[in-house]
Structures are given as structure tokens and as C-alpha cells.
Amino acid sequence: MSLLSCFLRFESAQESYRPGEVIKGTVTLNVHGSSTLLIKALSIKCSGYASCQWEKPQTAKKESKKPKPKEFYVSREDYISTQSYIIGSEQANPSALSPGTHIYSFMVQLPSNAPSSFDGALGFIRYELQVNANYIDRIDCLTSTPLMVEQSKDLRRLAADIQTATENEKYEAKPCLKFWRRPLQLYVSLPQSGYVVGECISVHVKVSNHGNVKLKDITTKLNRIVTYKGAIKERKPMETSETTAIACNVHGLFGQNSNVTQHLQQLFVPKTSPSLDATECKCLSVRYEVEVTVCARNAKRFVQTVVPIVVGTVSLSSDEKLPVLNTATNHAATITVARSMDELNLPSTWEMRRDNVTALQQAAQLSASTSSLGK
């Protein structure tokens, strides 16, 4: 009996692909043995979708003899599901493959609205290439390869305030019965609110401690918050969130008893997926925040605040030209942005008026010559 093996080879090996990009490659089939192999069709399938699922929490009630079945919140959104036949078709008659190596080319285009690949505890966004063989009595998956898709998020295209400094201030919550106690005051500022992987976040922390509380440490975290959205059958959609600290630094404050304490903490953005809005994916969204916590030696005394940030793929300090998307041709063209009216090199009013007069004179001469020819 013949044995069939298969593997995919891409034309350009790269770690990730952009939405709208065309993926080219070859499918190599090896038919082992000495006899031919009957096959109806050989197809390559590209699939990409988002999905999430979590169990509905059970309310605490009296034990019953018949436990209620578990219910799950689920959601799914498909971005691409294409199947191209390399050999034959689903209705074709079986054809014989001779022993040896057979190589076929393929080409797949990713959708332009595809969000970045992501894997979380309760959901994911995945893309995959799969090669299937249709036999007379069954369909087998010969090989499958995951695709990493990274959506381009240019921070320079976002709101202008993302380039300016952002800050937040928080007072320690104190019990009503201890109204005389002076609360801790925390002030946090960032030079900007947009970053890319590998960049450093400089976090300026200022603590006002006029109550002379013995402080312990300052903890700075970079949190990734994933919000999943799902429903049970046709009921109202529900949401649940998952928070993960992807970077953390702790600065000790032992022996510092001044009324005002300042510290500059640095956090490096690790490899992670870019921010994802709820409008880009109906199953999940991804956002980031910088969390700062000041703890006292007394475990009941602390103050905490967060500053939201955006993680993109193109830095605010990038020298690349801004591409503009032409909706008519769906191609990207480069433009030059002028910082002042002088850089536009517009013609003066006198030049525009002179050009208009010249155009009128030429039109009059052309009209006169036409009328003379008619006579």
C-alpha cells in the first residue's frame, strides 16, 4: 500500500504576515512505495477566525439530586475561509498519482480587515493553512501550518494627544472613623501614551507622605487586559476580563521618610500583540495600562492608580513616511506632510493671475483662428 507525505514551503520565509498580504508557496507530495495512489482531489484551505468560551458561574444553592447542566458563553467571528483545489475537485473522478515527488504551487491572500493573531486563556485569534486529500471514502488532513498575522498599527495615525505627556493623581482611601489621618497622595506621569515592542516606558512617580507613614516599596506593572464577549444561545451578550502583568519592577523605600518621595521607574515593553479595539473584533479586545502601587509597612495602607497606554507596531519616533490608503485602487502611496505654509510652495496670487490671463489670451487666439478658417 502506498504512503503519502506532504509538507508546505513558503516563497518568502517570515515570522508574520500583514493583512491583505499574498502568501505564495509550494505543496510537495511524496508518494512512497511502488504502486500508484488513487486520489479524487488535493486542496489547500486557509482559515482565520476569532473565538472565545467560558463557563457560566453557578450560583450557590441547595444541593439537588439532578445537577444543572453546565452552560457556556461562546462567540465566534470568521475572517477567512477559502479552499482551492490543486488536483481535481470534490466531484471529480479519482486520478492516479505515480510514486515519487510531486510539487504544486499555491497562492492565498489574507483579508484586509484581519486582526492580529492572539492566544489567551479564554479565547484566541488564529490563522492556519491546511492541505487536505480527498480519497474515495474519506478526507484526510495531510499537513497544517499556523500563520502569524500582525496588524499594522501606526501610532502616528492615532489621536494627537497620544504624543503628549499623560498623568494621573490618586489619594489614598481612608476610613471615615479616621478622618484625622492624612492620606497618601500618588502622582504618576508618562512622557507619552503610545509605545511599541522593545521601547522603554519612563514612569515618573511622586508620593506625598505628609502623615510620615513608613513606606515599603513602589511596584510598577505593565498590565494587559483582555475582555471577552460571548452569549448563551440568543441571550444578552456578557463580558469577562483577564488581567496579566507582562512586565513588573519593584523599588524599595526602606529608610526614606521624607514628606515627598520621587522615583523614575523604567519598564520595557515585551513581545506582545498590539492593542485591539472592540470595533475590530466582536469576540475580544486587548488594551494595556501602567499600574503603580505604593505600599506602606502597614499592609492596610496603600495607594494605587493606573494610566492607560496604547501598544502599536510603528513607533511615534519612526522616520518612515506616512502611507495613505487610496480607496479607489486599494494601494498605498507616500505623501509629504508640511509643517508650515512656507513648505507647501504654493504659487503667489500674482503668478496665478498671470497664468489665468495667459490662458485667456491663448483661448481668444484659438477662437479667432477657428472663425477665420470657417469663413
Automatic annotation (TrEMBL):
<dbReference type="GO" id="GO:0015031">
    <property type="term" value="P:protein transport"/>
</dbReference>
<dbReference type="InterPro" id="IPR050357">
    <property type="entry name" value="Arrestin_domain-protein"/>
</dbReference>
<dbReference type="InterPro" id="IPR014752">
    <property type="entry name" value="Arrestin-like_C"/>
</dbReference>
<dbReference type="GO" id="GO:0005737">
    <property type="term" value="C:cytoplasm"/>
</dbReference>
<feature type="domain" description="Arrestin C-terminal-like">
    <location>
        <begin position="180"/>
        <end position="316"/>
    </location>
</feature>
<keyword id="KW-0716">Sensory transduction</keyword>
<protein>
    <recommendedName>
        <fullName>Arrestin C-terminal-like domain-containing protein</fullName>
    </recommendedName>
</protein>
<dbReference type="InterPro" id="IPR011022">
    <property type="entry name" value="Arrestin_C-like"/>
</dbReference>
<dbReference type="Pfam" id="PF00339">
    <property type="entry name" value="Arrestin_N"/>
</dbReference>
<dbReference type="InterPro" id="IPR014756">
    <property type="entry name" value="Ig_E-set"/>
</dbReference>
<dbReference type="InterPro" id="IPR011021">
    <property type="entry name" value="Arrestin-like_N"/>
</dbReference>
<comment type="similarity">
    <text>Belongs to the arrestin family.</text>
</comment>
<dbReference type="Pfam" id="PF02752">
    <property type="entry name" value="Arrestin_C"/>
</dbReference>
